[in-house]
């Protein structure tokens, strides 16, 4: 099969384009609402996402800067700066890992936990048809 034929075989059809368009539309609506919710609380959407990823990291209540950078799809130095901004506003605190002193754990403060839970409740109300986020039983 020539590369030209292979390329044509992989082109999306009308149904694919409609599905992709609808997904992007729903995603953009959610992101806009998320911006409004976060901004109304006096924080940025990145700060909200950082809080969410700290508390939502699998099997523990903290995360490292590197893990947060991966979750945010951001550079580690930019993530460290975001952690510093959140720390300055009292939302998170840094703790040196007891077993590996090279690692720094990021933990939510009580203020950060309250902020996260309040904003997450508002976000959850807007997930709507995203039943895959919480499981089909909550749809």
UniProtKB/TrEMBL annotation:
GO molecular function, one term: DNA-binding transcription factor activity
Residue span, HTH marR-type domain: 20-139
SUPFAM superfamilies with a match to the protein in the record: Winged helix' DNA-binding domain
GO biological process, one term: response to stress
Gene3D superfamilies reported for this sequence: Winged helix-like DNA-binding domain superfamily/Winged helix DNA-binding domain
Stored InterPro entries: HTH_MarR-typ, MarR/SlyA-like, WH-like_DNA-bd_sf, WH_DNA-bd_sf
Name the record gives this protein: MarR family transcriptional regulator
Organism: Caballeronia pedi
